[in-house]
Amino acid sequence: MVNIKTLIQRCPPLRLLRNIFLWMRGGSENPEVWQGDRSWLRRITYSRSSTDEKAWAQTGHQWVESWILPALASHQKPSWHVLEIGCGPGRILAPMASRFRQVIGIDFSADMVQYARYRLRSYSNVEVIQNNGSTIPLPTATVDFVYSVIAFQHMNLNTISGYFREAHRVLRPGGFFRFQTRRDIERRNVSLLDRYFLSKEEVDELAETHGFDIISSEQGLGHPTWHWFTLRKPS
Questions:
Q1: Which residue from 10, 72, 150, 181 could staple onto 198, CB 3.0 to 4.6 Å apart?
Q2: What is the domain partition of the chain in residue ranges?
Q3: Which of 232, 24, 25, 32 is nearest to 131 (CA)?
Q4: Partners of 191 in the beta sheet?
Q5: Sequence-distant (≥ 6) Cβ neighbours of residue 40 within 8 angstroms
Q6: What CATH number has the domain spanning 64-232?
Q7: Which pLDDT tens digit goes with each residue over 101-160?
């Protein structure tokens, strides 16, 4: 007979419900809601079915070409080492790999990391690392560009602040940090999976606290509620 703990581990929906329950009780700073088999991960992360792999992957190219890299058009170099915070299954890592020397993705979900490694196994310049949900396991001043999309809106302010600090640490002088957040802060805490939406004032304070200069910001790029920021570590 299978006990309840084993049943939960074997059933992704039950694991999701359990971790959301623990999160609501305050038992986890970064709840492991992103767990399960590959098709399940794809559904809950990007609302795509397992039969739509090509279209799902193609959206990663759209993100890179339309929303992430244009802000750095006059700065980016093929020799860059690039890092993604909250890489998930690696949808954006693949198009980045064709543009830069080394691409690294970090994610706290073991299942996401395993899935991303499987999807990107043919890329020799891509590395996917599991982290602890708050730090970046890389040496100081070894990265030229850090980016993050659809990740900070699932973290609280303390965790985001920690990633700002860590991004500043791993960036080389003059390196860039670009990220997306949501600006509809009146909905903060309404949705279990969209809890922490940063206001521009909060981003300004985080940038100042952690030693970044704000280079640009764009509202509504890609979605009416999205707000993009480009920061730079002083040389």
A1: 181
A2: 64-232
A3: 32
A4: 194
A5: 12, 13
A6: 3.40.50.150
A7: 999 999 988 888 988 999 899 999 999 999 988 899 999 999 999 999 988 887 888 889
